Amino acid sequence: MADLGYPAALGLTLAVEVPLWTGLIAWALEVPVRRAAVVAVVVNVVSHPLLWFVLVPVLDAATGPTVVGLLAAEALVVLGEAILARILLRRDLGVLVLVSVAANAASFAVGLVLSGA
Length: 117
Hints:
With about 120 residues, the chain is mainly α. Helix content is about 85%, strand content about 0%. The protein contains 4 helices and no strands. The longest helix is centred in the middle third of the chain and has 31 residues.
């Protein structure tokens, strides 16, 4: 994550995750596409800086940079995104957790590929 710089990482996250969030919640939860897109942007704009500037630095300070620490931070983001989407949409939390897992896994994988890791 540190290789990209924050603006590029946020842009990559939005480019990968917003279409996934939008399509999945529009399809699985029958949410209108426009509303799904707004929720997709909101959950990512809220969660991304928390991951980048709070969770990863705190976990790195506590344990050093580790895969386990990064996965723990991502797990907290998944849960936070799903809860925020649940509040905004009043839809099934379980489905929203699965959507968040899929979107975050996709953007994490794209980030790894682009960073050469």
